[in-house]
């Protein structure tokens, strides 16, 4: 954790009321604990992905805990117990430990603007399909895109694929 010394110094100097960190960043959690400052985690994925992350990182984070004089936590229970904020809708979460302790939030948004008339006046439902920006570079995605395009092609809907 190369950032840990700097984060420790920042918290010591600024004495924030709370440390807000993202779930893939552990220096903030450790430095906050060292200085007795509450920490909040902003989840970057669904709770099952967050759980996998804690399981993978627990050993390395525990080694850092030892070097800081913090109580050991080989299973990552302190990481799991962190107050968590997320924008993930509850419907996308599988039931499991800790899911009910998550605080969900959504930024208020103004009404939707009309889309450009790419579909020449068609007003059917809009289906938006995306696998993100990295997926197209993976070998199995060309066939998957074709399969999905064929499945969506028969719908009475506007289809946007990115």
SSE layout and pairings?
Elements: H1 4-14, E1 19-22, H2 27-35, E2 39-42, H3 47-67, H4 77-80, E3 83-86, E4 102-104, E5 126-129, H5 141-153, E6 158-161
Parallel strand pairs: 1-2, 2-3, 3-4, 5-6
Helix pairs in contact: 1-2
Walk me through what this model shows.
This protein is 36% helix and 14% strand. The protein is an alpha/beta fold. The strands form two sheets. The chain has a four-stranded parallel β-sheet. A two-stranded parallel sheet has the order 5-6. Helix 1 crosses helix 2 (27-35). The two termini are 36 Å apart. The model has no long low-confidence stretch (mean pLDDT 85).
What would the keywords be for this entry?
single chain, 162 residues, alpha/beta, four-stranded parallel sheet, two-stranded parallel sheet, 5 helices
């Amino acid at each position: 954790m190369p950032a840990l010394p700097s984060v420790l110094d920042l918290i010591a100097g600024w004495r924030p009321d709370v440390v807000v960190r993202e779930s893939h960043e552990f220096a903030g959690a450790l430095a906050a604990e060292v200085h007795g400052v509450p920490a909040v985690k902003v989840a970057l994925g669904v709770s099952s992905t967050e759980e996998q992350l804690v399981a993978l990182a627990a050993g390395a984070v525990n080694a850092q805990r030892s070097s800081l004089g913090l109580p050991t936590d080989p299973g990552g229970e302190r990481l799991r117990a962190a107050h968590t904020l997320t924008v993930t809708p509850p419907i996308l979460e599988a039931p499991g430990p800790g899911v009910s302790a998550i605080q969900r939030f959504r930024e208020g948004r103004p009404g939707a603007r009309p889309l450009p008339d790419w579909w020449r006046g068609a007003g059917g439902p809009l289906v938006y399909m995306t696998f993100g920006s990295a997926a197209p570079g993976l070998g199995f995605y060309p066939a998957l895109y074709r399969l999905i395009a064929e499945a969506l092609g028969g719908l009475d809907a506007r289809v946007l694929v990115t």
